[in-house]
Task: structure prediction
Amino acid sequence: MLGGHGVQAMNVELVSDAYAIAANYLRRSGAIPDTLVTNERLLEIIVKLLQHGEFNKIRLANKAILRFETQSEARAVA
Result:
């Protein structure tokens, strides 16, 4: 059985992988700048999705992209 640290390490890897996928797409689409700086809003979206029970990195990335783009569109309209 995995202890708390093992699960935490897996979550860090999962968040990292999902972030890399989502950030790569968003950089290529021009939604975020092509820099090495972490986009805090995207990271926050991924962490919240994980906290709500999403543990598949592809679904995490796809849902994060959708939420990021939706929030960006809402901000542009406001």
